[in-house]
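Translate sequence into structure tokens.
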Amino acid sequence: MIELKSKLESFPRGEFRTIYKSSLSEIAKAGMFVALRDGRYREFHEKLVLLPSFDHGIGVGVGIMAQTNVAGKILRMVSGKENGVPTKPGTKELAAEILDRLSSGLGILGLGVSEPEWMGKLTNLKSIARTLPDGSIELDFFKGFVTNGADAEGFLIVARKDGSPEYGVYYIPRDIPGLSVEEFHIEYAMEATHCKIKAEKLRIPKEYSFVDDYAKLGADIHLSEMLSAAVLFSGAIRKVVADLSQGSECRERFAVLGKLWDLSGLLYGKCMELSDKKDRDPDYKIEVDHPYGYEAIIDECFTILDGIPNFDRRNEYPDLGLFTSIHPARSPVYIKNRLRQSREWRKFGSLK
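Result follows.
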């Protein structure tokens, strides 16, 4: 981690565009791709929580967690490293090759699900995949938000199968003719670059069809990404506490900072518990234990920070805005699981 910290400190303060790609070698050497390669989530999260204390750390952390939990999760299943996806001739080998490049710090892959007005529901996707008589696939799609996309050498996109209720996942090489890539940047954690991708009547070989039905995987992929986001948030709050505990005003702030430290520790401890479950059981689904308090702790930590006199978190720590922009309580998965959980609340105290 020392080499990675030094590498990130070497970039100018205003730089963001090239940082993630330029740091891939150091990210790999630091063991940040251990979950991507071997599925060791506790070890991955023990490292991820430290990144917010590094220069450019939150943005780089977003890039790593997206690579690990989103595109990487699909690659691990298709390559046979995890259960859950039937493999097809040629597809397993291709996925294994891409996974090896990613976990070695040699490449970047983006996943495109989001579309305008899709509102987190697969049923709203307008991207279409058609299977042609020769077995090849024709795609019409527009994906408006691909994390790690600016420097990705390829993409996975989700599209509805024409004439079917299923939503497939398809591999698209960046250099394939007919693919349009438009880079853009968001306000927070800019080191995790983004792009829009689109194509019409784009033809790909049948081997590039990676997953038959993303609907069976989407919830767990989302919750795995949010688990890593919770770890990153814990590290970000601990960085703020470490900074604010310095100086002449620190005694007046001890109670407030102590509460922030405790809240971040409680969240991090829960994340480690869930990480252990993922490590022990390859079939474990976070949905069983979700929600687990991340949403409430985000809100409470921000309320506390906003109550500190002469402190403006938006100016001092602008990347904290990332966690509001991807607030997990807005997720359809959160709403569904909270409703399920509420049924258990009503049973509290029952002796039957």
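Note: The two ends are 53 Å apart (CA to CA).
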